[in-house]
């Protein structure tokens, strides 16, 4: 029997760059070519000025923990009981949802400094992962 893989994210022409950048080891978000607004998740139009022109902007990986949940139920492979889902605000402003790893639940604090790493979760999927900043 084959090992269960994480569900694949739906990739479309708006967000394909995000996953291409992750595959290249970078965390990037959309930056409006007209007003420089940074945005995530990817959408076709700038919510600030309605421009359709944008470019990918690489983020530093520095961030702050805004919120988190510890998932206990239901447990379904490949996820394991007690994994942590975090809302991280990048130093540049955009917020991303990702797993939080390398920390025990009792040590998590809202506002703690986060480093966003880029990790292969299996042979075909690379995702951002939050870890405590050193
Ligand atoms: Zn704009």
UniProtKB/TrEMBL annotation:
It comes from the Bacteria. InterPro entries: ChsH2_C (IPR002878), ChsH2_Znr (IPR022002), NA-bd_OB-fold (IPR012340), Thioester_dehydratase-like (IPR052513). SUPFAM superfamilies: Nucleic acid-binding proteins. Residues 57-118 form the ChsH2 C-terminal OB-fold domain. Residues 20-54 form the ChsH2 rubredoxin-like zinc ribbon domain. Pfam families: OB_ChsH2_C, zf-ChsH2. PANTHER family: BLR3430 PROTEIN. This is OB-fold protein. It comes from Nocardia speluncae.
